[in-house]
Protein 1
Amino acid sequence: MKKYLKLSRLYSVVPEVIALIIVFNRVRTAELIDIPCLLLLYSFILRFIWQSAIFVHGLGHTIAIAAADRNLSAINLSNILEQRSIRHILRSLIPFYCIFIPIIAFSSPTPYSPIPLFPHLPLERQNNIKLKASGGILFNLAIALILLTQSLCEAVSFRVFPIRYSLIIANLSIALFSLSDIEAKITGTAIYLYCGNFGLIAFRKPDDEPDLLPPRLLSMVQQMGQETEVRGEQAGGGLVIGRRDDLPVFIGKKIINQKRSNLTKSLETAFALEREQAIALGVKPLKSIIAGVWHYRYATSGTASSKLETHWHEWIGARQEDVLLFADTEWTYKTKNVHHRITHNGDFESWRIFERDVDYKTLGLWLERVLHTPNATQGDSPKIAGMIDLL
């Protein structure tokens, strides 16, 4: 981690170093008193140019995704900005503030564990992935080529402040450093599952009262969270099971992680307050066990990071249902408290109904009608929750 932070700080002063070189290259024609102002100005311009190249990259990916999936709703600001906040982008224009440089991702000491996704995908699916992966690279290369052609035709001098050349270099750098995009373009497969589930079931000890998540297990949860962060850190949710009036209830919290914040720490800060409020409202721990589940998310399905799309998911809330039980050699009906919440990794593309495969988006519309419960989510995982309620 220390090595990562040192690299991050080093790369974050690159615009200022380049600005310094440019200023001293022009110092003969500038008054000494103007040097600090010029340094700040050129640093801002260089940082703006870099962000513009990242914007071009995101725009290319977004248009490619919309074309590959034939889904114009994918063209939105969140996807174009690649899930980065406007606030972070504006702050990255401030001199010496951290900027995103792709090579940092490949210099991280974090032990990534590649898990191949669908190594034998159908050719159509591989071509779909290749198109999506190439969009950002092609847009960056196209901008660089257009600007380079103009510069050669107009014989622009590099001694003039090189905005055009800086744009060319920034776009070429983003294209060449997008190693995961290049690999996906060549192989037609994605290389990481960018989500993670973890959870626990444990016996409750006498000194665990009255915590819904005792300190001895909280430290275990946070360790599992730290291991899971490499899977995705854009958003996350956690829940534990308690009881109110002897009925089990879910106590949960979801958050959108702030840029450069640690998801494990941020989620636990918010979740701890949620658990405390639940206890104040009369929720008690289960009598014999402690159970909880967490999910960290990377927005892989074209949906922006939002609490609505973040796991856990439910379709119908807690309700009383007549259920069929088998006990003492007899089947009986009993009214029980029923409530489902799920976390899920992977793809849920369709369900076979009435002798045909129904895609998950159509399935969602159908579930809203047969379950008489609206659901505004766009992703595939919530449909699993709906199917569990139905079945």
Note: The first helix runs from residue 2 to 12.
Protein 2
Amino acid sequence: MQPGDRSIQPNRFIALDGWRGIIACIIALCHLNVYSHIYGATILQHAYIFVDFFFVLSGFVITYSYIDRITNAPQLATFIGKRFSRIWPLHIIMLAAFIGCEILKLFMLSKTGISTETAPFEGNNTLSSIIPNVFLIHSIGIFDNYTWNIPSWALSVEFYTYIVFSIIAFLSGHTRVREQAIMGMMIATSAISYFVILRYSSRGIDTDVEYGIFRCLLDFSIGYFLYKIWKYANHRTAFRDCGILLFSTLEICTLLIFFYYIHFAGNTPFANLAPFVVAFTIFMFAIERGALSRILGSAFLQRLGHYSFCIYIIHLFVAINVIDRPAQIIAKVFSLDILRPASSLPIKGISETGNVIVLPNEWYGDFITIFYIGIVIVLSGLAFKYIEIPFSRTLNGFFQKASSAAKPVQRAVGAYSENG
């Protein structure tokens, strides 16, 4: 990137930050087992596609920020350390919180006889899966199912995708054909990953602990290619000079196509095209010249965007321990019939298993849903301020000190404060 390019390169993708917050909240809602007017909505049943949105976006943003900044060993170590510092502190704290809840379940069972749906340290929360979670290797083929904080499977595969990407950038070094070398290796990575998913995954792109690493590698690679396309388009004067009316129309059409796709393609073979549909959507909003982009840049959505990582990691703990388990205890103590199998609900295409909290009418469920998402956002704001930012800075500072002695002088490249 030449110095003169900075005039047309953003320091931050504001609209995409807004997207992060919205999608994190949608994923949080899909894990809430409370019968309401939105429970079982198609967009929530097919919300797994939004994970591909995060993966592709991560590839786009990481490429934008670091493609020219990983050319030697110290830079490679700094990048890996920074990514580890970004995701590990909150992950490990939430793991400790889940372990604490299992200890509390054990205490309640021994002292009061009150039990929950699963016994302490059984099901997804086994003692043997703690250490793999600590080292973020719990979702790269070690276990056949989720362990502990279910959403953290994405952190596991994404961290090792970061490593693959950084090694590719590092191996290309300062060679004359650096861009071509990176391009070739990313093409190979995406092709192999797509083949594995289509050939071996029984659920196609909707794979997680089974072939999730290949899903993330594919999506991340698509994000890399998306950055190359966006960079080319962003340098075209005719493209940049198009008016707000045209871009607003394109953004609205893109939004309609995206949600139409999620509605009809989810749980069908067409879902395997999700990385490309997501990439097109990200491209249109990365331009940031339409009216919807301005709305996504509003203060509230920007704040949600900042909290998105925390929302993603915290929400299941809230759903289980603030909503589900209290309802289970209340139902047992007062003999209330408020827990019903998901399959018994009058919702077309529902594939959920387990029990759902069913209150006298759906409006009560709406209230609980609003309460839940409010709690998640508030706790995420606190976690962002008191855990994510300070812990990440401290840990990153440690890694930077470790590599500072051999670190060469770098030319300035604008960074994006990604939440990938």
Note: The chain has 14 helices and two strands.
Protein 3
Amino acid sequence: MLLTAVAKCGGPWRADAQAIRQTRGRYHYYRCRKSDSGATVCAGVAIAMAELDDAVLSAIEETALEPKRLQKMAHALVARAAERNQSLAERQKTLDGERRKAKKQIAELYARVGAGDIAMDQTLKDFIASLQQRIETLTRQAAHIAAERSRPIELLRPERAEEFGMAVKAALRNPENRAFARAYVNTLVSEVTVSDDEIRIKGPKAALIEQAAIYSAKGELVPSFAQQWRTMSDKNANWRLSLSY
């Protein structure tokens, strides 16, 4: 389930194993969660998991990881370091606000349970667990951004850009470690939007260059949470690609 965190069809998708069997087993699809509410909400566009995974990986390999493109992005981001730090500060403030809001929501729910207004059934337990998980994720993201604000973006040498691209390609296609591939895709890609005839892929430039810088310095690939400050308003903060099919 490589793309469940980033794929969407007007809303988040989920992996779904359709009840269609052949001699080799089930076909697996990505399907919009909203389709569960009926076609009036979403027509329920579905796409084969292997097909979408391969399309996104190919886009990363052929476009986002192209050495000259990496260098160009690095130069642009260095020139915009001050703006980047301001955006990071704003994103960190937003994360802190979201974390406080989630904590308050949990406290209010427990208070209502204690007052007998609502029952602590399994649905509520699952919802509270999701909020707690969200808080943990926000905490990690905020910590990452705090560290990132003190780390300058460095220029990327041509040879290191090429080595980085090759290393990422090998990791993303490694069938023995799909968990790593999923974590790395979630770092480099912020959104995959699928319609009837097009796939649109978007990812944060800064997250991509940060990963290249880490590889250049340490010689290793380290997935991060940089993709979570991807919602900057400047469209130039993202690399984009559209695929027709």
Note: Helices lie at 49-64, 67-79, 81-114, 122-149, 158-172, 178-188, 205-218.
Protein 4
Amino acid sequence: MKLLILVELVLLCGLAQAQDSTVVATRISSAPDIDGRLEEQAWQTGKPISRFTQSDPVEFGHPTQQTEVIVLFDNDALYVGARMTDSAPDSIVARL
């Protein structure tokens, strides 16, 4: 049940918009640290997904910002790491 919910969440977050619809999840032997950084060896072994399209302002257009997602799994969990760049990070507005 947990895995199904997480997979649905991943799809809702944009993996469904990837031009190449194949997502490869890489098996790892131990869990990575969940610290917001993707510098550990585990993340380096995963296959990055980066061929996304955007929905706004041009639906299915070339993205204006680069995004890279890596999916890993072990016997206990599915791990999703993402690098999402922004050319103007000072204009990001946090909302509750």
Note: DSSP finds two helices and three strands in the chain.
